[in-house]
Amino acid sequence: MDPINEDSSGEAHRGQAPALVPISDASAAYRLIAERVDALVRGRSEIADLAVPACPGWNIQQVVAHLTGVAQDVAALNLANKGTGPWADAQVARLGTHSVDDLLDLWRQSLDQVGAILAFASDAGVCQLVFDTLTHEHDIRGALGEPDSRTGDLAFEAALGFLTTMADQFIRQAQLPSLRLSTPTIGSVQLGDPHTARGHLALDVSDFEALRSFGGRRSLGQLLALPWDGDPTHLMPAFTDMLPAFTEGGLRPPADDLIE
Asked: Whole-structure pTM over 0.85, yes or no?
């Protein structure tokens, strides 16, 4: 049976189309995450060198340096290589001698200018910034073993709106099996064209698990083990080949399981 439920007339119950939140909402979400990260790590100098399993090779100080560097680069319109590894590495190198608290101060000082720049950016660009920042918030929380803020706020709405919009485009272009993805915050969204796709799937997960799975923080084994309705094997190229494209290869599933 088709894993997407069908009513007595044979019509499948489809999810709504994925949607980006408005720039004003995404910009507010970005500030919300910055405030949460500040509250999480400020005044805790002992955690600076703690390794971040979700970001191999980086410690907490380096993740915060990246977040601060992104804000500085947005404010300075240094965006030619945004989303690439060299762009992030340059931020960490530039800010590598600063303490975590100094980095938080620099980030805070950039927020007003970043907000002014974001007002003229695209919805997708601002939502991508929220996605990246929210992802790193939870990378830091994972390193600390202090999970929180995993659902039901504007940050998840913006980040998941970006991820599902991109996934929908990739799935359609590659004619992969369509997916009805359901989470508490975004409801049920349809990814891919169910009328032309070769196969249909459904997946109901938490906001947090959707962020981590579609955001490059789950191994292939973990992805296959999600509570799929249907066989997800033929959808895996969306995670291994296509979703990485929007950050220049930065979102490939890790080789090892990330347990959070």
From this structure: yes
